[in-house]
Each structure stands twice: as C-alpha cells, then as structure tokens.
UniProtKB/TrEMBL annotation:
InterPro entries named among the record's database cross-references: Acyl_CoA_acyltransferase (IPR016181), N-end_Aminoacyl_Trfase (IPR030700), N-end_Aminoacyl_Trfase_C (IPR007472), N-end_Aminoacyl_Trfase_N (IPR007471)
Organism: Aspergillus tanneri
The name this protein goes by in its record: arginyltransferase
MF-aspect GO terms: arginyl-tRNA--protein transferase activity
The organism's taxonomic lineage, starting at the top: Eukaryota, Fungi, Dikarya, Ascomycota, Pezizomycotina
N-end rule aminoacyl transferase C-terminal domain ranges (all copies): 176-310
GO cellular component: cytoplasm
Length: 443
C-alpha cells in the first residue's frame, strides 16, 4: 500500500482520539454523575480547527477535548464570548484597574510625578471624561512608567513596584510550578503531594500547536501561550491563553498568588485579555463556559455586551435580560429550538422529538445519534460524509477507514463498533474539522 497523503498534507491535519460519551461528577453542584459530555483527546490540534470546535461548543483542558450535552447535564455549560471592539467596561471594572495602577505606582511616585511631569490640561480633561481601556491596562507597566530625574534626590523617580507583563511560550518553569502549587493548596485547599510537575504540565502546558516559535516575532500568535505577570521580579500570576485566528480564549482564568487576592486578578486579567484581543488583531474574547446556575460564574456576564452560543444552531445570542429570564426558568435553553417550537401548531406535531432530557435511559450505552445530543450531526448528515475515506493513523502511517477489516459490515449507530465510534467523532467534530482531521484509534 502506498502513502495516501504526503507530509505537507499531513502537517495540516488535526489528530483526534475518540474517547466517547461519558457521565462524570459535576464540579459545580457536586452531583455524582450529573454531567454528560463527549470526549476526545489530542496533542495535535491546529488553532483554526480549535476555533471551529469552540464555535460548536467544545472546550479543552490540556490534551482533553470535550463537548457537554447540556440537555442531559445538571449544570448546562454555555460557551460565552464577546466582541472586543464593542466591550464597555463597567464602573467596578474600571475601578479595579485604577486601584491596581495606584498600588503599583504608589502615592509617593504619583505625587512627585504630578509635579515633575505634569499632565496637560487637555490630557487631564480627557482622562477624567473617558476611560481608555488600553491606556489603563498598560499605564502601570514598568516600560510605560515615566522616570524623570528627581532634582531633590538626584535619582530617577521610581514607582513603588516594578510591574511587568509578558507573553511567553507555554513551557513549564520552576516559578510557574511553585505558583500553581501555592494556588491549588491555598485557594482550593488541596494537598501538595497530589500534584506533580507532570500533572501541571498536562493541565496547563499541552494540547495545541503554537506559532510563531518565539514570542518576540511580530507574526500573529496562535496556539497555547502564557501571559506572565511579575511584580518586582516575582511571578505573581499566569494566564493560560489559547490564541486562534479570530479569537482569544481564556483557558485557565489565573493561577494567581493568593497574596494578591485583594486586587481581583480575575477581573484585571479579563480586562487585559480583552485589550490584547484587539491589539493582537483577534476579534472575539472567549471566557470559556457560562453556567447560569453557578453564582461564581455570573461575573462573566458582567463583561458586556456578552453572547451565549445556542447549543443547537450554533448562533451567538446576546446574553440580555430576555435570555437570562429564560435561563432562570429552565436549565436548558436553545433559542433556535424555542423559535422552531413556537412555529408548530401543536406541541404533539413535533413528531420525532429528541429523547426527552429527563428520560430514564442509560445515555452512556446509547449512540449519540439515538440520544439526539444537541449540536452534533445527525446520522443522515454523517452518512452524507465520506467516512470510508476518512484518514486513520495506524502505527504512524495513514490508511483509509475502508481498509479496516470488517469495516463494511459495521453500522454507524452501533456505539460499540469501530464505525460507530468513528461516526460519533465525526458528528461531534462537525463537517469542517472532519474534513481536515485524522483519527487515532489503535496506537
Ligand atoms: Zn451540576
């Protein structure tokens, strides 16, 4: 058998290992097996493909990629994003940045600087009347702080603290690991012995291809990156970011130093990331999942205007009072489904209605197709794809599915067969990523 694709084509593919549909304990309401998701793993996903997946409700944690079934989960996850150019910071958000800047510069610096390098009247007026997110985010960074010679001391006027923020590759360092341990043990009250360097690495440092190779390059950054915050040379926070062609996704809000909790780093990092979204030439800022029932997640809705992904149509709907009200009334909301149902004369005419969300079935044993999981392709749609010629990686070489012994005798809606497993993966990935990916199964 000759090679069916060349090295150049192979490089453009994302690889996925299907792990299937599983129920797990819920991290929010702590129900034992309340959350159901479809899982796949990969250490080789292209950022453009990940963006396509994110826009279909997927998310990743290190090399684990998953898409929740919000219809059969206790705490439905809705993907949430905003358009950076439309973002309007609220008063408490503006205050958080100003408060941090004041702390970094310090009262002595602010007093002397006002005297040594006074702002013009226009500048004062402009700053008073409108808050500029970009100015505010960068104001206290050491490289932007004016340091005139103070005639009193004959020395450079220095701010109270040296604050620096840099984008770096997602590699691991001792300082990052120590910060992570401190965070897990202090905030999450976890036992230090639970975590080893390799766990940390799996959690924060792998899963997506990164480019360009060095952070100083002017080329648009894609893939997995770390935004590192240092105060007086000490690493105080690391924000893990997934950069995609049109969007910036905040992976792990922050591994912040608990000593700095009072500064609301969650808020500060989100504001900085929204600014970076615009400055880096991306369009959307993704804050991961929004869980309406989880009080801790509600803050995401305060970055406005915000949008939620419709789990069925994959349209982005404004998270306004109307949508909030619906989410108050019932956990699973798809506005496109609501509109469809409103057009039907009687609810009975819904005919082949999806499996009732509350139906007493063991959904781990049912095919995704029989489950009618929202936002995945139907059996008919997958049949229209050419699964026979989907690529499979076997011991480092590519073959077609049809080359597998017994392939033709298998059925797509048998979740136990290889064809069933592969068909579910295609359904969950969607037609675009399907076309540019390959499956890892036996390696
Ligand atoms: Zn739950």
């Amino acid at each position: 058998m000759g090679t069916i694709i060349d090295a150049e084509q192979a490089r453009k593919l994302s690889l996925f290992r299907p792990l299937g549909y599983q129920r797990n304990s819920c991290g929010y309401c702590h129900s034992e097996n309340g959350s159901a998701s479809y899982y796949a793993s990969s250490v080789s996903v292209r950022p453009a493909h990940y963006e396509e997946l994110v826009n279909r409700g997927w998310r990743r944690s290190g090399p684990l990629y998953y898409k929740q079934n919000p219809q059969r989960s206790c705490c439905p996850h809705y993907s949430i994003r905003l358009e950076a150019s439309d973002f309007k910071p609220r008063k408490d958000q503006r205050k958080a940045i100003n408060r941090w800047n004041k702390f970094v510069l310090g009262p002595e610096y602010i007093r002397r600087a006002a005297y040594l390098c006074p702002k013009t009247r226009e500048e004062k007026k402009r700053r008073k009347c409108n808050f500029d997110l970009f100015d505010a985010v960068h104001e206290a960074e050491y490289s932007n702080v004016k340091r005139p010679i103070d005639p009193k001391t004959k020395k450079l006027l220095e701010p109270a603290h040296r604050f620096e923020v840099n984008i770096e590759g997602d590699s691991i360092s001792q300082a990052k690991f120590e910060l992570f341990l401190k965070y897990q043990t202090t905030i999450h009250k976890e036992d230090v012995s639970k975590w080893q360097t390799k766990d940390f690495k799996r959690f924060l440092c792998s899963g997506m291809k990164r480019s360009p190779p060095n952070a100083q390059s002017q080329e648009k950054k894609l893939g997995s990156w770390h935004q590192c915050y240092r105060l007086d040379g000490k690493l105080i926070a690391v924000a893990v970011l997934d950069l995609m062609p049109n969007g910036l996704s905040s992976v792990y809000i922050l591994s912040y130093d608990p000593d700095y909790e009072q500064w609301e780093f969650g808020k500060l990092s989100a504001l900085r990331e929204i600014a970076l979204t615009s400055e880096g030439g991306y369009q959307y800022y993704y804050m991961g999942y929004y869980i309406h029932t989880c009080q801790k997640m509600r803050y995401k809705g305060s970055f406005r205007p915000q949008y939620l992904l419709d789990p069925e149509s994959h349209a982005w709907d404004p998270l306004d009072s109307e949508l909030s009200k619906k989410l108050d009334e019932r956990p699973y909301v798809s506005l496109s489904r609501d509109r469809k149902l409103a057009h039907l004369d009687a609810p009975e005419s819904a005919g082949n209605n999806p499996v009732d969300a509350d139906a007493e079935i063991n959904d781990e044993e049912v095919s995704l197709f029989d489950l009618h999981m929202p936002g995945v392709l139907t059996l008919e749609q997958v049949k229209a794809l050419d699964l026979d010629h989907w690529l499979l990686v076997v011991q480092g070489t590519f073959v077609h599915m049809i080359d597998l012994v017994g392939w033709e005798g298998m059925t797509m809606n048998d979740p136990q067969s290889v064809k069933g497993i592969v068909a579910e993966l295609a359904a969950a990935l969607g037609p675009e990523v399907y076309k540019e990916s390959a499956v890892v199964l036996f390696d």
